[in-house]
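::Amino acid chain::
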Amino acid sequence: MLGIFMVFLSAFFYGFSNAYWKMVVADRPFLPIIFNRGIYSSSFFLICCLIDENFSVFEPWLGASPALSISHVGLSIALCLFSGMGLYFFVKSVKESDVSLVVPLSSLNVFGLLTAVLVLGETWKYVYNWAFLAVLLGLSAIYWQELRFKSSQQLFRSLLGGLLASFFWGVSYTLFKYPIAWLGVLRFTFLLEFSVTCLVGLLLWVQGVRLEYLHQRPIQILALCLVMGSVLLHVAYQYARITQIVFAGKFQMIISLLVGRFLYREKLSFYHWLGICLLIASIYLIS
């Protein structure tokens, strides 16, 4: 239960962040904002790593840091860069479309479930069939109104961006179990943020984009949500099964839809609320 509770807390921060992205990137390029957010988060986790290395402050909660190997660091960096593509497609899509269109599909995580069962060899329990059915019915209800009233071009663009984000995030977040074991929670979280920040910096350099002054408060809020969400999620890997984390993470989608409702006045119809109830039911089934 402790692991699932941590996933819920993590999903709260990630869910708010996912919806808040739209406000932050609404009238400005999104890559410089991702880069600035990465500077904050990377610096924070670097300081935490240095403090822990010298004073073992976090060892009672996170355990001792394991010995490093070049092969493990290399594989971890590759997985971090793979995960970074999920952020790219998500922010790009949420900038162009409604939160209620992008978030549900990006949070579907069927790719994470398949990776957990086929790659990690986790057991698919019978109750997961009902939980997965509840998720599919919930998503169908959420998209019912969109299929009827949105233009096909806008809907396709939103679905494609959400699906690509779901693929990169679903596979990588499931496999994060390995680099967390190889590097430890703090080291891996720093490596993840630093790798993604370097990737975005490279994209900015290739595109010839010059960094200009950006209002920092919204970026700092995104960085804070990232820090809290990442730490809670990565610690949860030590206490819960991957399949439990995948299903409990659906709480993130619920938070995003509710935040989108209040921040952007995106209307939630009866079908949206029905979908949210079904998603809550799927979480209850596996908790």
The two ends are 7 Å apart (CA to CA). The chain has one domain: 2-286. The CA atoms of residues 94 and 127 lie 33 Å apart.
